[in-house]
Amino acid sequence: MRKIKSFLLLLLAALALTGCVGQFEVGGEQEESAGTDEADLVVVGVSQVGSESVWRTANTVSIQKAFTNEKGYFLLFSNARQKQENQIKAIRRFISRQVDYIVFSPITETGWDVVLQEAKDAGIPVILMDRQVDVEDETLYTAWVGSDFHMEGENAGKWLEEYLAGQGRQEEEIRIVVLQGTEGATAAIGRTEGFQKVADAHENWVILEQVDAEYTTAKGREVMESLLDKYDEIDVVVSQNDDMTFGALDAMNRRGITTGVEGDVIVVSFDAVKAALKLVEQGVINVDIECNPNQGEWVEKLIQALERGEEVEKTFYIKEQIFTPENVGEYLDDREY
Ligand code: AHR
Prior knowledge:
The chain is α/β, with parallel strands linked by helices.
């Protein structure tokens, strides 16, 4: 335990030296980093969902790169470990510390009215990142930066439509399972609805089941195993993030089921992290719908504008694309996460 603590302290010291962070929370304890002075800096409290996926880690890195002491910020970072109650506690701590801005990625859409009202009453602007909130009063937050999850789901459906048409399978029954992300999260809601919209136009597409696999590899594997136990024939796996896809691929491989371009099962994934793009290149995953985690720089630009007293757009969609074996080669080398 002592060894782990010393390692964490060293890590924190290293982060402080690089100017990446002012204060960091580890295991629920707050660890102050030495030598940082928040007096002349813009203090930003960030509540992150957790570290459930490769995407999430990349999103956290983008925040840490955007809010450095050198750029004039003092970052308070809190990892909620996938629990809404931890996010609410973190936001309340930020309010009592009178931070200049609160940035957070809400784990689910509902349950934020009270704490966001407290932030508003304290005069602290809230910027949502990645996921959205479902609140009565939209003035409880200043702006949102993230992905068009509905469009991502629809793009997955449209890609499948064209792929099956290319194989002459428009009339054939297509049996689909969907591994969904965290229930109630904007990413899961949007991707599910977007895909469903396209599926509804195809009587031959049968969605056998849609199951919450929490955006993690372990749960993706577990859920895929139970689906394979239940259904003899699955033609398509739609997995709402790459981490769940890794688990699902593992479950299928163990049973000798082949996937992808030459395989038995078509695999549609989301996020487009490097390890998954390599599998797209190898033809193991058929398509990866990008979800761009590099949102820190856009959140920071918003804060810059607010600091100048400017009005900002309420909604900012980040640019994303679709990766298939045909185009992935040109992007792979530059992928950092
Ligand atoms: O909200 C974005 C989603 O959350 C990403 O697809 C997933 O990987 C993450 O955990």
